[in-house]
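hey so i finally got around to running the thing on that chain from the lab meeting. sorry it took forever, my laptop kept dying and i had to restart like 3 times. anyway pasting the input first so we r on the same page abt which one it is
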Amino acid sequence: MRADDHPVADRRHPHGHCHVRMAAGVAWAVLLLGLWLWGRDLTDGGDLAKGPTTGDVAAVGRPLEQDLPAAHAPLATSPGGRPTEVAVGALGVRAGVVETGLDATGAVDTPPYRTPGLAGWYGKGPQPGTAGAAVLVGHVDTTSGRAVFHRLGSLKPGQPVDVRREDGGTARFTVEDVKIYDRGSFAPRKVYGAHVPGRAELRLITCAGTFDHERDAYTANVVVHAYLTGTTPPQAG
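ok and heres what got predicted. didnt touch it at all, straight out
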């Protein structure tokens, strides 16, 4: 279920928090393994990139045959490679990016609730554009209303996502899949591991499903899978 299937006005939870609990329902050891695997060539044949899946993990709007652009060679990790802005034209999103880590529960932390327009980059993972899967997370809503990734689930394969880097360069990614992961079946290896060995990839993640008042969290996460298809060079000076 897409996050934007549940308008903010229909939610009755007291805090309006979007908890990106990517480890929900998964043992701590599995989450930590998933984080450790980031950027390594760990795929099970790239099954997530081949087409829709069924059961708890569902592809959203992926055509059976989709011609997507060729992957661009990964960039090198550099001091200027930290992301500063993410732009998703199809959603009308242009948002600043702040570095995040893990929260007290072991989940990848989101930006503060007082800044719903920001996305967070997990700084211990790959820089966007370098080999491996870089991860950006954001709220679907907060107490102030809709947040940066409110319509994330409506993205379609082939649509671009641009990430501006600290050095002034830009990494352009192309969406290849959008999936919904139920809280009880979140798969760290499939989400964090690169789908294609050595390729530069991007994950955009937010909350989805319905709000569970007892757990003070949403029941699912929407995960956008994208890969590097172009770059613009760093700005001189």
